[in-house]
Design brief:
mainly beta, Tachylectin-2, Chain A, 23 strands
């Protein structure tokens, strides 16, 4: 009897191993529009109480990005505490964190905001966006920092800095990664911001938007390099005005292919999905377009193969700046 039981268990384990092997060898299919559930509000991400650091409409790319560590989802978002004096835009934008055990019900971190940026003490300075990647238990967070020379000027610029963490809450000193004043960086001159990050075989690929001298109207660009802080080559990818809006997180469909979801800046209701081979991150192919799917600024997509789910997060400004989540099942192309 014991021998038969052991045989049955062995057969079961072999079958599970084969199923996992087949799944990992297959490619995740991009969800159809009909695959996504109806949006559900994330109550825990509503605006903060009056007088708090995130009591006003963010006015930036938020929710920004999400990673998962040890079964916990870490969602990073931008908040502001009021309006700027000179143009009534969002003031003092900072980065906050919310965590979840299921990717749906989030709780704001009590230590928020986790990151702020104001070297010139100007109300337009701050952190406008972020993209995260988890590698060997460490979170690499690329942030869009906006700076000014002093407190009264309305002239600002944006760079990309990197901060890292082992717990997702406490980050080290920022390291400048893409400098808006560096003429060797495509799109230099005005503002640069991260849209997605990929790491494979010791190579790093940082997708970023550029609104500068050589590249205008928020074009999509790519920086590649041999470390998380050193990107020796930059290039423009898509020759299309106002391409960047939000999104851009890198999702691994297989061991060799990736997908990215972008919200268009000149059409906030439009999401375009692009794919590429991991060995050729600069060769993007449009795979799908959804029109009228998103509402407001800020679309972030997260692929959780372990849970068998896609998550799509979206800030809807027309409904009191509430954040919603849609879910789609993970399916594999055989």
């Amino acid at each position: 009897m014991l021998r038969n039981s052991a045989t049955i268990i062995l057969i079961f384990l072999v079958m599970v191993s084969l199923m996992l092997s087949c799944a990992s060898a297959s490619e995740v299919s991009i969800p159809q529009r009909s695959d996504w559930s109806t949006p559900k509000e994330i109550v825990g991400l509503r605006l903060g109480p009056q007088g708090s650091w995130d009591d006003s409409d963010p006015g930036a790319v938020t929710p920004c990005t999400i990673v998962k560590l040890s079964g916990v989802y870490y969602l990073y978002y931008v908040g502001s505490d009021g309006k700027r004096d000179h143009d009534k835009g969002p003031a003092h934008r900072k980065l906050g964190l919310a965590t979840s055990s299921n990717g749906i019900d989030f709780t704001k971190y009590k230590g928020n905001p986790i990151l702020s940026w104001s070297p010139g003490n100007n109300d337009e300075e701050g952190i406008f966006g972020a993209k995260a990647l988890s590698v060997d238990g460490r979170i690499y967070l690329y942030i869009n920092t906006v700076s000014a020379k002093n407190a009264t000027t309305d002239q600002v610029w944006g760079d990309v800095h990197l901060v890292t963490s082992t717990d997702g809450k406490h980050f080290g000193k920022p390291v400048l990664v893409l400098d808006h004043s560096n003429a060797d960086v495509v799109g230099y001159g005005d503002e640069l911001g991260p849209t997605g990050i990929m790491h494979k075989d010791g190579k790093w690929s940082l997708y970023y938007f550029a609104k500068g001298l050589r590249v205008s109207d928020w074009r999509l660009c790519l920086a590649t390099g041999d470390s998380s802080t050193s990107f020796g080559r930059t290039q423009q990818l898509i020759d299309e005005k106002a391409f960047f809006g939000s999104g851009g997180d890198v999702h691994w469909l297989s061991n060799s292919s990736i997908a990215m979801f972008f919200q268009k800046r000149n059409d906030w209701g439009r999401i375009e999905v692009y794919t590429a081979l991991a060995d050729s991150p600069d060769k993007l192919t449009k795979a799908r377009t959804w029109v009228g799917f998103a509402q407001g600024e800020g679309v972030t997509v997260f692929l959780d193969k372990q849970a068998g789910k896609w998550f799509l997060y979206n800030r809807n400004l027309s409904e009191g700046s509430k954040t919603f989540v849609r879910i789609a099942p993970v399916k594999y192309d055989k």
